[in-house]
Amino acid sequence: MKILTKQKNENKIIFICWLAYTAAYVGRLNFNASIVAIISDLGVTKAEAGLVSSFFFFAYGAGQLVNGILSKKYNAKIMIFLSLMCSAVFNIMMPLCNDISVMKFIWMGNGIVQSVLWSTLIKTLSDYVSDKKLPKAILAMSTTVAIGTLVAYGISSVSVKFGSWQIVFYVASVVLVISAFIWVILFGKSPEKIAQVEEIRGEKVKMAKPVLLALFLAAFAGIANGFIKDGINTWVPSVLYEEFGVSQSFSILLTLLLPMVSTMGAAIAKKVHEKIKSHAAMNCIFYIFSAILCGGILISMKIHNIVTIMVCFICVACGMSMINNVITSMFALDYRRMLNAGFAAGLLNTFCYVGSTVTSYTLGAVSQNYGWNAVFMIMLGVCAAAACICFGGILSEKKMKEK
After folding, report:
1. HSE of 311 in the Cβ direction (CA atoms, 13 Å)?
2. Cα–chain center distance at 65
3. What digits encode the pLDDT tens for the residues 273-285?
4. Quick check: 10 and 129 in contact, CB under 8 A?
5. Which terminal CB of the chain, N or C, has fewer other CB atoms within 10 Å?
6. Is the pLDDT of residue 65 over 50?
7. Quick one: how far is CA 176 from the chain centroid?
8. Which of 300, 223, 236, 242 is nearest to 262 (CA)?
9. CA separation for the pair 91, 105 (Å, rounded)
10. What's the CATH superfamily of 2-187?
11. What is the pLDDT of residues 13-24, one digit of tens each?
């Protein structure tokens, strides 16, 4: 009976962590999903509207690092509730403001409060979920990006078609508030923490250098992950529109296939991890796989085959989803006995977002000046370089095992 109760509590923790972060994506991606309508309605330029998203990223990225360090001291029940509620307030403020220069500061505030979530949620899973249930927790959390993206863009498309872009933010605020109360109610009184293995101080010192080296290499692999992942998501509609003559609306619809199929990446990564325990080895394989697919994109551009290029785009997106899952979830939770899981998750997620912010401007400028072939050659090169970094991680993990 006690075992069943413990399992129910673990499942409950996994569910509310999943719900909180999925809701956060709905209240984060709604601006990007509605950006075309916002530009048209407010009469602003793409650069001005894009700056709103940039403000969110810088606040979120910097906050990830800070909150990753502080997450060990947070009361998870209170902090997650406040983060979701504050995000709801910022979402309500957006449609009430018709000045894009003010919107960017509102959205920056949203980035600050949402930056609390990931590291705190990973720390919560680390504290309250057993080793046996962790693979289930990792799989669940890895689906939040795809599901949150689909919900945000789905709400946006319906709102813009039948109402206005303002409705998107009101709906998101309702989703965030409901999720906040579900979180605080189901969390209840602090559950019993999973007993941690006591480690001798001398062993910690021995393990420190190889573990930190593995963390460092994973962080740099994360930059490449953000660069490729968001590069694909951002520019696929433009490629389809410019190179294959697909209408703008249909190109966006086709792009939604990426997050839909990417959900499978988490399940695949989980299965691979059962066979291959090394995070670096998994990432190395996935990056080589993605590099080959980038070559497939270049060939598809040459033969002008939209079916082939869409298959390659979807597979690269799936590969990046697997890598992101390994870096931001598996690594932090698998090394939770040696590292603060919240700190590791926050740090690695920050590096992924560094790659994300670089990709939008860089690849856009390259495509404008040198064409799309140059863009995908860069992506191929980034995948190859990341594979080399991951190979260094394999050597680091080997030394760690020897010690």
Report:
1. 9
2. 15
3. 888 888 889 999 9
4. yes
5. N
6. yes
7. 18
8. 236
9. 12
10. MFS general substrate transporter like domains (1.20.1250.20)
11. 999 999 999 999
Number of C-beta neighbours around residue 385 at 10 A: 15
CB–CB of 346/67 below 8 Å? yes
Bigger pLDDT: 120 or 201? 120
Q: Hey, what are 169's tokens? A: 């933010």
Count Cα atoms within 13 angstroms, Cβ side, for 245.
2
Q: What is the pLDDT of residue 79?
A: 94
Q: What is the DSSP letter of 189?
A: S
Please state the domain extents for the chain: 2-187, 201-402
Neighbours of 190 (CB within 10 A): 11
Question: How many angstroms separate the CA atoms of 243 and 258, rounded?
Answer: 19
Polymer length in residues for the chain: 403
- Per-residue pLDDT reduced to its tens digit, 68-89: 778 778 888 999 999 999 999 9
Specify the CATH architecture of the domain 201-402. Up-down Bundle (1.20)
**φ, ψ at 226 (rounded to 5°):** -65, -40
Both tokens assigned to 380: 């191929």
Give the CA angle between residues 282, 284, 285 to the nearest 5°.
Answer: 65
**Position 308 pLDDT exceeds 90:** yes
The beta strand positions in 28-168, using DSSP E, are none
pLDDT of residue 191: 60
The runs of H, that is alpha helices, within 245-340 are 248-255, 257-275, 279-303, 306-325, 331-334
What are the E-state strand segments in 144-243?
none
